[in-house]
């Protein structure tokens, strides 16, 4: 066959595939409409089902035959589900802005592009808007991330009636930004402590003699560097643009799978999806062995802990509170038993929510 | 059937659809790989085909059975094509930043989310990076848009060897941003002239006594308003976030289909897609009737003009140059004949490119 004949043969097949794809997507949207109708009749107007979406994405990931990688394939299904849902219930999602931050990326990765997203300036504002019902969900970074989050998300949970109903992980890339065009001219590197740490290997190798200066946020580092010849910042490409800096080197993070975790907050948590996490807020007696005693119920019930972080409580009663993530849903019998037990061992226990583990 | 039985029936159908969708998407990606292989063998390494993508999207739009609207359905296909192409040829696209602007929206709408996008600060920089080959394409606003573009895109074409290889239209929403929470407290409204004009009806109705102050850009308006109680800006929600302003009213544009046009620039223009435009740069004799004489060949060959704009030439030789968009591809016989004719009537004619009309 000639090249042209070969090409047109394959293209005809693509056209046929596209036709089938369109019909299937249309039928899927019609099914989503049917689901909404059945639920509405029963008085249920909550059409977004995080646990069902997680199950679908997990299956897609498990059965993906290639050649597209899992990330791309699940992304396409996220978008298809997003479009089908928007037809029945257009979602509004607030995130920690401004636009162009990793938190926006997280919001769109989790909800797809058919939702309307609202950038807000602070984490408490996001909590307020979700509480007030003016948006359906909020997306917030878990940690004092490299984007210079001032208010700690977990602190806000201490006084909020909201729940965690999802988590999402985003791959983070760091770049070296400067007014200089060569590494030889750079004597100091500014960034958030965490970002400097994430690029230590690269910095040791490529800028061994440059001073490393930790500052409040990566954006702040970029702003400072824009006024200081001979310096560089570790930050995102968005910051390069905003502050008029060049990219001296790209993707300098040591760990290529450098990801950051974000939480989805809502007015309810999620039903069981089969692979879930539960986040807890605990306070224990301020005495030797208090933390150990507190964690015994988890060990006894063979519950895995994926994360623990202590925070000053900001209330007079306890010195410290702990944020703990465990594997399993709070309605799972072993988890429920462990939580009952834990409740007796702690001064204070609040379940912040059970939700599907991030699929990718 | 009980509600639960009904639901699980529909959900089983959705699961079956998803399985078929996944297999078809995978097969489509495999076909794209085959196309790339056939082309590579023939020494052709240009896998992105704007005219073919436009044809596919046009067919999708024409045959979309609903219930998803055309915009959503074509968006999903854009993403599927984007993922398939990225497998063979990951595209880099520069756009007029920063992140969060309408130009970024345009870039992602046109290329899908599987490309890597690079925000740059000025239009000449985007031209330079495309010329240098460090990115495959650039996305630039056509007009001195509401985002405060300083350098006029069309001026840059006068001295550039690049071509226009696509256009994309983006729906633009304007909001009223202020430190105030009620309309009654607002005595002045700042914005770019064009945005004030686009919201005139709403402003007449809701703020009849407020002074309207045209400024350089919508972002600049938001910045000024953040320092001036009693004022408001017409700008995007991204600007509200960046400058810490509240949204007093949303989507206040008079025309709900308020769209702005962006151009895709590359090192070559696009082959015939069947529904194409051609952009021209012309200079005519500076005499009475010069413009009329210049346009006669178009009329004679029944070529429709969709846009004409005069610009100071910045070269001593001519007083004015004209940017003209016509319907049809330069290889279309009638267009080719008109261009031949036109070339004889003008002092200077440059074809900036033929490219598929924006599908949506």
From TrEMBL, chains A, B:
Pathway field: Metabolic intermediate biosynthesis; prephenate biosynthesis; prephenate from chorismate: step 1/1; Amino-acid biosynthesis; L-phenylalanine biosynthesis; phenylpyruvate from prephenate: step 1/1
Record domain ACT: where: 279-356
Reactions the enzyme catalyzes: prephenate + H(+) = 3-phenylpyruvate + CO2 + H2O; chorismate = prephenate
UniProt key word Lipid metabolism: no
EC number: 4.2.1.51, 5.4.99.5
Pfam families: ACT, CM_2, PDT
Protein name: Bifunctional chorismate mutase/prephenate dehydratase
Organism from which the protein derives: Thioalkalicoccus limnaeus
């Amino acid at each position: 066959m000639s090249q042209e004949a070969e090409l047109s043969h394959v293209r005809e097949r693509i056209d046929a595939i596209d036709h089938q794809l369109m019909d299937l997507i249309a039928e899927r949207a019609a099914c989503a409409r049917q689901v909404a109708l059945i639920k509405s009749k029963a008085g249920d107007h909550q059409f977004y089902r995080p646990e069902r979406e997680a199950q679908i994405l997990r299956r897609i990931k498990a059965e993906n035959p290639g050649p597209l990688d899992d990330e791309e394939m699940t992304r396409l299904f996220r978008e298809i589900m997003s479009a089908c849902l928007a037809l029945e219930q257009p979602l509004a999602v607030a995130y920690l802005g401004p636009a162009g931050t990793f938190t926006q990326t997280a919001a769109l990765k989790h909800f797809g592009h058919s939702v309307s997203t609202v950038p807000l300036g602070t984490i408490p504002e996001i909590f307020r808007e979700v509480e007030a019902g003016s948006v359906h969900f909020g997306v917030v970074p878990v940690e004092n991330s490299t984007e210079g989050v001032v208010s700690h998300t977990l602190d806000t949970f201490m006084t909020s009636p909201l729940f965690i109903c999802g988590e999402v992980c985003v791959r983070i890339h760091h770049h070296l930004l400067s007014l200089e065009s060569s590494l030889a001219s750079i004597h100091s590197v500014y960034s958030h402590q965490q970002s400097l740490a994430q690029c230590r290997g690269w910095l040791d190798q490529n800028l061994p003699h440059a001073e490393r200066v930790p500052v409040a946020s990566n954006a702040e580092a970029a702003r400072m560097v824009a006024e200081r010849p001979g310096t560089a910042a570790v930050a995102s490409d968005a910051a390069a643009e905003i502050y008029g800096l060049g990219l001296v080197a790209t993707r300098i993070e040591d760990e290529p799978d450098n990801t950051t975790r974000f939480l989805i907050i809502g007015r309810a948590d999620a039903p069981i999806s089969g692979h879930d996490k539960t986040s807890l807020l605990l306070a224990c007696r301020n005495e030797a062995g208090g933390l150990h005693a507190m964690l015994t119920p988890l060990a006894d019930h063979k519950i895995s802990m994926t994360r623990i972080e202590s925070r000053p409580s900001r209330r007079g009663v306890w010195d410290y509170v702990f944020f703990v993530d465990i594997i399993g849903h709070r309605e799972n019998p072993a988890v429920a038993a462990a939580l009952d037990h834990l409740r007796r061992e702690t001064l204070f226990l609040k379940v912040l929510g059970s939700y599907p583990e991030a699929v990718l």
